[in-house]
Specification:
eight-stranded parallel beta sheet; single chain; disordered C terminus
């Protein structure tokens, strides 16, 4: 088996609670994922990244874990997960699962034992407990803020405080404690032995904190992190001792288990997480923040290819995930738009806005699929789904809404269950509704509608992934590509003759090229002209090779 399969993989993120519901309880589950393996195979992906499926009170969408070695009973059983691994592997698809090492659920046995134990006990030392500040100890130990709003400290009945960088139901582990380190090595081994191929490490930059007194100030979590690892909470150099231990474990398997870090750190620091001695790969989130602009895209692509080369890793390309507004919607709104304010308005996009977002999303998908490295897709982007802004306040589930005191609506809009069919109560998601409300416009984006339309977003993704796979297997996409900007055009030239050209302007641009058109994100009316907001792939491939790949 290829130990480097992940370097150029197309990975599809499944948010299981919103993917497919097999038992009509309104919540997606593992049997639902199994029922759609043929769909995933038809898409042409190399791996599935499965978001948390562990037992959880769902204070934060499953990222509050009670048991790291089991499956939430609402989603299935360990036997169901074994069946999913087998079904994916039979389809030629690998499985990556989420590991949440910064914090557990407050219902985790360790934390319940900590609350039941006295100050200074071994049970409390596994988490971050501290005495309060002020004359009577009633003030939080520091000004550290939670990502979800408010103080990052919660007071316990006996007067101590515990740290939670996210919701109060997500207490942070103390990674200086040997029990924590041993436990997660055992967890990683448990899933590796079960056949899991890799791990996505949630907030990989947060595990180690500087807890020396006096605690240093952290007035805002939104400012840029320093590039020397000196922040008290994030991206500290000591992290990589932990990840070296994990790498030693991963490399005992054949093939070695892969890992990818979710690390919101400066690009210059990302190489540490992506090095062969550490996790091996790290998410590049720069395109999640980029405006629809040729200069911005060209700079981000060139910079991240260079960093990946320096780390002896491969780059990653991400346009959407479960934490951000879907990119088809971001590209439909004016550059610099306040996304939180737009979500709070609760109004869907206008028809003209939606069409522009669709055009740009199609072009962006082809652009990233033309690049070397791994492309991480988020469920539903291949259907062209937009953010669901119409969710009523009464239906919100994300703790961000509550903890921000209504200033932010949260991430529910990108987590709405998928539409599989144009008809049915929940568009084929399940037989008895869905845990988040689906809008009526989902019907036109349903998978069964798009499968019949050769011009749909789904058809475009399938074609682009198939061509990418063909070029990769022929060995024509090795090495760093030439990346350049020519006015409103971003041009990617790959070894083997593939040239990808993206027109970021709204007007057609003349282009003189060699090779024939392999694929275009929108209809070409005349040559040598590239329509506005369009990506075109040019190259020379044998007809027999294209037919063979299309048939497979």
């Amino acid at each position: 088996m290829d130990p480097d399969w992940w370097r150029d993989a197309v990975v599809y993120q499944v948010y299981p609670r919103s993917f497919a519901d097999s038992d009509a309880d309104g919540l997606g589950d593992l049997r639902g994922v199994i029922s759609r393996v043929d769909y995933l195979r038809g898409l042409g992906i190399d791996a599935v990244w499965l978001s948390p499926f562990y037992p959880s009170p769902l204070a934060d969408g499953g990222y509050d874990v009670v048991d790291y070695r089991d499956v939430d009973s609402r989603l299935g059983t360990l036997a169901d997960l074994d069946d999913l691994i087998e079904a994916l592997h039979e389809a030629g698809i690998r499985l990556i699962i989420d590991i949440v090492p910064n914090h557990s659920s407050s219902e985790h046995p360790w934390f319940r034992a900590a609350l039941a134990s006295p100050r200074g006990s071994e049970e409390r030392e596994r988490y971050v407990f501290m005495e309060g500040a002020g004359a009577d100890g009633s003030e939080p130990p520091s000004d550290w803020q939670s990502h979800f709003g408010g103080s990052a400290w919660e007071r316990t009945p006996d007067g101590q405080f515990y740290l939670h960088l996210f919701a109060e139901e997500q207490p942070d582990f103390n990674w200086s404690h040997p029990d924590v380190r041993k436990e997660f090595l055992a967890i990683l081994g448990f899933w590796s032995d079960r056949g899991v191929d890799g791990f996505r490490i949630d907030v990989a930059h947060t595990l180690v904190k500087d807890l020396a007194h006096p605690l240093r100030s952290q007035p805002t979590i939104d400012s840029l992190l320093p590039e020397d690892g000196s922040d008290p909470l994030y991206d500290r150099d000591e992290l990589h001792q932990i990840y070296r231990e994990w790498r030693e474990l991963f490399d005992r398997y054949d093939p070695p288990r892969m890992a990818v870090a979710e690390a919101w750190v400066p690009a210059s620091r990302r190489v540490r997480y992506a090095s062969p001695e550490s996790l091996g790969q790290a998410f590049n989130f720069d395109l999640l923040r980029a405006p629809w602009d040729a200069a911005a895209f060209a700079e981000i692509i060139a910079r991240n290819l260079r960093f990946a080369d320096e780390a002896h890793s491969s780059s990653t390309w991400v346009l959407s995930n479960h934490d951000v507004v879907r990119h088809a919607t971001r590209y439909a709104l004016p550059d610099g738009a306040d996304l939180d304010a737009w979500l709070l308005e609760g109004r869907p996009l206008g028809p003209a806005q939606a069409l522009q977002g669709d055009r740009r999303a199609r072009a962006a998908a082809m652009l990233v699929l033309a690049l070397p490295g791994s492309v991480y897709l988020y469920q539903g982007e291949e259907l062209g789904l937009h953010e669901v802004s119409e969710i009523g306040i009464q239906d919100l589930q994300d703790p961000i809404w509550r903890r921000s005191e209504g200033r932010q609506k949260g991430r529910d809009g990108c987590r709405v269950p998928l539409p599989w069919t144009a008809a049915g109560r929940s568009f084929g998601f399940g037989a008895n509704g869905s845990h988040l409300p689906q809008p009526r416009w989902f019907a036109s984006h349903a998978a069964d509608v798009e499968e019949r339309d050769p011009g749909s977003m789904l058809s475009l993704y399938r074609s682009a992934i198939a061509l990418r796979r063909l070029l990769r297997t022929e060995g024509g996409v090795s090495g760093l590509p030439a990346v350049r900007r020519d006015g409103d055009l971003v041009v990617i030239e790959r070894e083997g003759g593939l040239t990808s050209v993206t027109n970021f302007s709204s007007e057609p641009v003349r282009w003189s090229h060699g090779g024939r058109v392999l694929l275009s994100s929108s209809d070409l009316t005349s040559e040598p002209t590239i329509p506005g907001e369009t990506t075109v792939w040019f190259g020379e491939l044998h007809e027999s090779s294209i037919a063979e790949e299309a048939g497979s």
